[in-house]
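Researcher: Quick test of sequence recovery. Tokens follow.
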């Protein structure tokens, strides 16, 4: 059963925290990497010392964001350089698009990601 929590003054569904990788496996500062949790492709980025996790598939041409790079605090797609804000998932103008952003935490030298709970499982 899903729970609820408050985020930015709005109620949201609470997911399940799942281990993504160890800190040693995580990308260095201002770098990205590709990962997968339960069949969901993830782009893990470290931007100015903070981790961010986004959907790994660019909505433009399905490029792998985790194979891209960091520029100006955004993840850039390696195929056509679409830039995505790591906090909101929004593409920078003039591009129009958005990728899912997942909550991330570091505990006990491991990186954890909050995944939505699948109510059909």
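Model:
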């Amino acid at each position: 059963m899903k729970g609820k929590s408050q985020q930015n003054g709005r109620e949201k569904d609470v997911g399940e925290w799942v281990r993504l990788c160890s800190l040693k496996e995580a990308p260095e500062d201002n770098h990205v990497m590709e990962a997968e949790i339960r069949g969901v492709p993830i782009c893990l980025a470290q931007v100015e010392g903070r981790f961010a996790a986004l959907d790994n598939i660019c909505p433009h041409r399905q490029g792998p964001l985790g194979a891209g790079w960091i520029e100006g605090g955004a993840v850039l797609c390696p195929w056509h350089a679409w830039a995505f804000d790591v906090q909101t998932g929004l593409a920078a103008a003039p591009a129009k698009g958005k990728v899912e952003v997942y909550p991330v935490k570091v505990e006990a030298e491991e990186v954890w990601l909050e995944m939505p709970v699948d109510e059909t499982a």
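The chain is about 0% helix and 45% strand.
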